[in-house]
Amino acid sequence: MGRNRSSGLRNRGGIWHIDKQVLGHRIQESTGTSELKTAELMLARRIEQIRQASVFGIRPVRIFREAATRFLEENTHLATIHTYAFHLKELDPYIGDLPLYQVHMGTLQGYIDRRQKEGKKNKTVNGALATVRRVLNLSARLWRDEHGLTWLESAPLIQLLPLHDARRPYPLSWEEQHRLFRALPDHLSRMCQFKVNTGCRDGEVCSLRWDWEIDVPELDTSVFLIPGEKVKNREDRLVVLNRVAKSVIEGVRGQHAERVFTYYGRPVRSINNNGWKSVRRKLNMPIRVHDLKHTFGRRLRAAGVPLETRKILLGHRNGDITTHYSAPELEELIEAANRVCEGKSGKTPALVVLKHRTPSAAAR
């Protein structure tokens, strides 16, 4: 029974817990073990860590998984939190148990090799590397322990891979657009028609809500203002409706009380679903959902729409307060967006795709 009264250890429900004051610092944590000897070793290690930190300024050793967990807990508000969580889950078998100071390009190479062997593009791998870099930078610059020491002395250089294998945007021709939209299920066709006429991202289209719609009676129309927490760049997103996008909105009005786009009364989680992929394979068309946004941007440029206006219509970060527009300014944006609608006159600017000449073509 004497060992049960070891200073600083308490048995609760069969598990030993540390409760001890050391050099002015209170330790209150579970050892996670029912073995007294193991618990005493863990207590001794924690006492030594505090002593070294307090007296010699030596940081306690923290593993990457601990830092990754803190990062996720502190950033649940981010629209991209699920992407960060996916990356960190994929990385965990490679660096999760490593001390923070041992995470660098060398220890990340196994992860890089596996992802490349799976056929993943460098851009995809870079997403994970950027997440590691962010966690390490926070550990070295922001997060501090009870002794005022940062979790990591300095963050190593995490280099992103070159994007020589990145897939280039694929803007649709009008003929390709007609073929694609006719082949898609009706609900996806409507969403894609809206996307290619507004430049919205996949998530913005899928999450679009009726309570984000704002009437503009002076222009006999409406716009949508997507809250910043639902937008990738964290800025409120003004969505201007040209005549095609407005027609799509009126076609689905009243189908659901909250969401604009639904399928049998349920929200659509992503345009890039099995229905989209099936049609793309059937048509043998090398297009991604994001290419619809590229198509809108290219058509705006081909129509001579100025850069600043294109940035607003595409929802790019520009530092402007997008909640303050006069009716004439909105009218100008709507007029610009209408310039990419396919008209009966056939004068809608076409996209000319320029390709590098192959050696054989150059010889001819």
Give the CATH class of the largest domain: Mainly Alpha
Q: Whole-number average pLDDT?
A: 84
Number of strands: 8
Overall CATH architecture of the largest domain? Orthogonal Bundle
Can you write the helix and strand succession as a string? EEEHHHHHHHHEEEHEEHHHHH
Q: What is the domain total for the residues?
A: 3
Decide which structural class fits the backbone. mainly alpha
Q: Please list the strands of the largest sheet in the order they lie side by side.
A: 1-2-3
* CATH level-4 homologous superfamily of the largest domain: Intergrase catalytic core
Can you walk through the features of this model?
This protein is mainly alpha-helical and 364 residues long. It folds into three domains: 2-56; 64-141; 174-338, hpI Integrase, Chain A (Orthogonal Bundle), CATH 1.10.443.10. Helices cover 45% and strands 10% of the residues. It contains 14 helices and eight strands. The protein has helices at residues 36-56, 64-74, 81-95, 105-117, 122-141, 174-183, 186-198, 202-206, 243-252, 274-283, 291-302, 307-314, 327-338, 359-363, and strands at 9-12, 15-22, 25-30, 213-216, 221-226, 237-240, 262-263, 266-267. It starts with 8 loop residues before the first strand and ends with a helix. This is Site-specific recombinase XerD. Residues 62-140 form the Core-binding (CB) domain. Residues 167-338 form the Tyr recombinase domain.
